[in-house]
Amino acid sequence: MALSWAFDLLLAVGLIWLAWQTLFGHHRFAAVVSFMVFGLLMALVWVRLSAPDIALAEAAIGAGVTGALLLSALGRLPRHPEPRHLLRPWQRPLQLQALAAAGMLAVWLGWVAHRLPRPGLAREVASDLAATGVAHEVTAVLLNLRGLDTLLEVAVMLTAVALVWSLGPALRSFAPATALPGLPALTHLLHPLFLLVSAYLLWRGSHAPGGAFPAGAVLGAGGVLLLLTDSVPWMHRERYQRRLRALLAAGLMMFLAVALGGLLITGTFFAIPTPLAAPLILAIEVATALSIALMMMAFYLYGEPGR
Amino acid sequence: MSAFYALLAAVLCAMALVGLFRFADPLRRVLALNVLASAVFLLLVTLAQSAEGIDPVPHAMVLTGIVVAVSTTAAALALVVHGQGRHRDPGQSP
């Protein structure tokens, strides 16, 4: 018991120190690297709070894909020193008040989180689990009970891809500053492993922690690694553009098809009939994982390919 | 244990808010936004631990939230890169 407390305390101190380095450290590069380590420690916190699904997604997205995005953005930004806010004289006393307000917000948030009643929906979800077609609660909530939220979330992601691509042609990935002859070979060796892990996570999702989000995140992280070594030339070819867009939208289309099919059969939007639930959810998961992986790669291009 | 992590989330929230409003550098603001998102997710997951077991609904919310956070980050970074790239190269037509 004392050991687990010591672990929690160490984790908390580490997280606060890394957040401090991320926010107030002197160098931007160190800040980005601190944030990536922060993501990895957050994954450990999710394990401690018995949320393994979130831990898997956070380790692949928070430390992997977000880190790659931040680092490549940092490489493209001008190297002049960071701009600083110079406070006007009348703003100085206000700054202290703002700091005090932030401190009070922290105290208030902690107190509310301590006092808030926690009725929870655990019992309701457990009683409806048999009708959802999957045996894992989080997957059941994500893809059946609250499927509409997940549909809208995939739509948000697709909108973000449209925004990024509307800014101009894709930026060419630039060569690393030092020659890394091992990187392409390592990427090609690792890629089957990425495919295997994401297929396993996808299959596991129906009965255990896993599912479309961690699978898509792992596949996307592997894809970003491939983009780093310029191993995905088809993404930039004119011929494949239509297919690429169809795959990007596949997750959302599959969701919409199932939701509208439910409307036709049962009269309720997103009502999946119980006998069909298991295969339909698997189909949605495969399409969503593929779309999420491709969308992560699409973000990394910082523009529209094939132009 | 959940009260301890709720306190950690509150501290991280305050730090990220100070950073978000204090910095002039857009990259730091994106970082602060990400730390703030992590703190809010932490708060949600600590609230998921109720008396009758672990509530899966906040877990699902956080899982979608992580993906929305990476979408926001990517969109913001693309805007920053395209916006500041033009400053670097004044000869290029907008």
Automatic annotation (TrEMBL), chain B:
Protein name from the UniProt record: NADH dehydrogenase subunit 4L
Pfam families reported for this sequence: Oxidored_q2
Membrane topology: Multi-pass membrane protein
Annotated InterPro entries: CPA3_antiporter_subunitC (IPR050601), NUOK/Mnh_C1-like (IPR039428)
Keyword annotations from UniProtKB, A to Z: Cell membrane, Membrane, Transmembrane, Transmembrane helix
UniProt record similarity statement: Belongs to the CPA3 antiporters (TC 2.A.63) subunit C family.
Superkingdom, natural source: Bacteria
Keyword hit for Transmembrane helix: yes
Cellular localization per UniProt: Cell membrane
Residue intervals passing through the bilayer: 6-24, 31-48, 60-81
Coiled coil: none
